[in-house]
Amino acid sequence: MNTSFNILELGQDDLRRIAQPVSEINDPVLQQKIDDLITFVQQRGGMGIAATQVGINQRFFIMSSHPNERYPYAPEMPATCVINPEIVWHSAHTEKDWEGCLSVPGLRALVPRYQQIQVRYWLRDATQVETTYEGFMA
Known about the structure:
Blueprint: H1 28-44, E1 48-50, E2 60-63, E3 80-90, E4 94-101, E5 104-114, E6 116-122, E7 128-134
Antiparallel strand pairs: 1-2, 2-3, 3-6, 4-5, 6-7
């Protein structure tokens, strides 16, 4: 189990690479990477992390929302792996809110977010999801 990833930081070239789509969701190596990344983000108390932030050049991320000191109104949800995500639609309206990023340590900024997005992605059990997120989750 590898749960001591090195987080790439702003300015490192690998953060600008376009991640490759996941082609085989049931691959045991991918499944282990997902387990390790879920454990890692939970150990760090993070809200989520993209595989590319730790040097894994594949299109997936962990979404792990929970209320905490920085985001007291965040909804509670189990850690979820989002594979090959696509934004299908987004609202025209955006709102700015304070955000931080593990790849930009010590800095928070007002970031515009769409108020609603419709997304399509795969779960780690190869189930396809199409749903709409609003507010913080968008």
